[in-house]
Amino acid sequence: MSGTPIKIIQTSMLSLAYEEHGSASGDPVILLHGFPYSPRAYDEIAPVLATKGYRVIVPYLRGYGPTRFNRPDTLRSGQQAALAQDLLDLMDALAIQQAALCGYDWGGRAACIVAALWPERVRCLVTGDGYNLQDIPNSTRPMDPVQEHRLWYQYYFHTPRGAEGLARNRRALCELLWRLWSPSWTVGPALFVNSAPAFDNPDFVDVVIHSYRHRFMYTDGDPALEWMEQALTHQPVISVPTISLCGADDGVGPPPEVDEDIEHFSGPYERRILAGVGHNIPEEAPEVTLKALLDLLQR
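^ thats the sequence. predicted structure below, dont judge the formating
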């Protein structure tokens, strides 16, 4: 587990916790974790970037670790626009005008949205599994049965039983997802204990349940973010230099042979398939993730 001190920055909505590595004068790099993971995913990446002179920020997403909502009456939204707004707010609070972004799962979604809608704020992007913007208007169209089977946990969270199950068994359920989503990662179960405390956040369950219901239009989002959600329905292209890392053994959805996301990228873009890697890309393949970042940063 990292011994890096946790810092707190105030945004309009959150007391947002993050870990920082390197000099404050270095070029900023922001590393974003997903569900159900934590900043521990970047423990082998952030310090190396710091030694190369970069300022590295690794936040705890809303609902994770020490990050807290400022008001008890704020909707515990997990919608994609909320994650993107948190990233923008973090950058503004830290006076970061432009940063390199790296993220996967929820964090990859936030990074892709900011890259698509505010490209001037993004120097380059490393995204886990390509174009992560949700196409919510078309979310209710059935997929092939094999992929539907992989998404069982999302349908579970749509029900009161699923919400109670996550509340009662959050560690056991998240550990199961780790194993299912990264079947080739033999050390994953042993490392789970390092990330599990981040799920004890009092808002974790509410944020997770809202996230998986909102993406299927089963609950309303934050009215203040509706303008962004409307912009995302157009599936805006990403123009910043991008490398997509895809785990060949990803239990959520292995990458297709043909890159279906390429049409969503108008700038320099490359997809790299990672043999023997599952869903937790930076923690399973830190050297490959670091190389992708440096390939873009040093280009």
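The beta strands are 6-10, 14-21, 28-32, 55-59, 68-69, 99-103, 122-128, 242-247, 269-274.
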